[in-house]
Specification:
With about 625 residues, the protein is an alpha+beta fold. The protein contains 22 helices and 18 strands.
Length: about 625
Amino acid sequence: MSGEAFDWHEFLGRWQEEWVPRDDLDEEEDEDDGQAAGLGRPGADEALIAAAEERLGRRLPASYREFLAVSDGWHVDQAAGVYQLGGAADIDWFRDPYDMTPLYEESLGDNPREEEVLLAGMWRRALRLETDSDMSHALLDPGDTDQDGEWALYLYKGWGGELPDRYPSFRAYMEAMYRGFHADRAHISDFVNATTRVQDAHVKDARLLALQGRYEVALSLLEEARSFGRPGSAVLLNQLRHLLAPRSPRDYGLLVDDARYLAEILPVEAMTPARGEWRLGGDDHWLGMMAARGAARQTAQAVLGALRDGSHHYAPPGPWGQAVAEAREAARWGATDAAWRMLRDALPRWETPGPLLLAPIGLLADPVLGPLVTPERGREILATPRAGQTGPVPEPVPDLDPPGLAWLTETTANRQSLDGYRCVWVEGIDPAGLPALIGEEGAELSGPTDPRRAAWQARKPHEREGVELWEDRPVVAAGRTAEAWAFAFDGHSHHHLTKLFLSPARRASSAGRAVVVWRDPRISSPGERSAAFHLSVAEHGEELYAFTVRGTEIERSGAIPDALDPARLFRPDDTELDRELRALEALHTELGLSLPRFALTQGSLHTFTTCSWTRAPREGEGFSYVRVGGFVH
């Protein structure tokens, strides 16, 4: 509050003028209580307030004192909670009649936050304000104060079993109750007054501002209008919040009941159950909820199924829809930064199908393009003028994919530092042709999917008929690098680079040059504790050169270029990380190899199962097949 002046006469007078009974409150019953004629009472004089303070032994905070001087009590009339605030003669110390203090003190732990300590002590310090409630209490805490000496107010709903709601002052509490009074009545068609007209104008202004890219101003207006329950404010606000936090689910209410918005909104609503995160009764409950909002059950079921199997495509009309299709074609092969640039350039041409859609929300549900919308890019969408509006264009969000291969050494949320990786690059071919070159018999590309999940869910050799236990057939993600190499990448197989390794480089090189890299940082035998690194390069079915480094041991063949000489790259005195980084940088510089980090760690790509990367054991050779915790060793 910082000493800000507040006109209690104007505020309470406006509340009184706008008052109408709730739908669940009989008007005659309310009049019998004497509340229809006046929500408040005449103000208490200074002597009455001072007498209360003397009785309590404390001076009351300024905002509450000023309130009492204007109205000595108030009929709050909330749908659930406190109904009546008493006057100066009615208030008294709460004294924790329910013995809440020990319960809250026991849950503090060893390093409690300051707000937790304050809450635990509040019950015995607090001043009780209400005189009529539904097992609820309005409690002013003199131990929880701000720089202006205002006491925090805690609203405790005893029937809810939840933590109390905290307001920084009595004034803040009353302003929230006033907004709640409006929200409780917003659905009443003839509930129209100066406040509703102002807030409805804010919703209208916010819509235009949002389309102009001034989303921060729009956000503030919509948050206020939403607190008053104004029509349209929640669904517009949720769109802004969703793009600012794209992975958080949002509720779009009855918007699915309008055919103009169905294609955008229903897939977004289905994202949570499609990911298996719906916990309120499963698919049937969700489908029933969508039907209750106006979406045909069969349509909702089809959308949910398409999201689950990855076949859903966001397909809006017009120039924006054409850009979406082109961006998806780029992103499904790994060019996510290029795809985002296509979308960004086309955003001004996006058209809203109706007044309640502010942005292309349906983009979030596309299995290929949705992952591209990071919070930073969500802000970029919102800051870009669209739907025929004009305004300044925001600075482009930087690309997310670093050049080269050095990012493979990073520890990320999706790849721990001890995970290995392996990849086949083939120069100058369409990645759709990779299954024919290095796939197992009958291999086909899947639809775009999460490559990590595809690898984890793949059947193991002992689960597949006709596959020998010694075989190593990884599920790989297919795509195209910025330098036009097709790649097949596996970062989650948990197999080891053993003596039975058979490089697929020759097989992959029938159409041109091919490169195979395998980094295995794990222990693959009791006496072998160092990381292993393999490189092989082939062309037109013939291996040109190769090397494998295990600790200080180097196996090599062919005419290896000086820039890739393993003796130079893998110096004995360097750390394993330095050796790996030097090798990856040389591969990028010498051969032009790279991989798209975002697509492989956060996006969706086509996958397929390759031929075996191990050969059959020869006479006198052995192998082991051990599964521990779902991993193969």
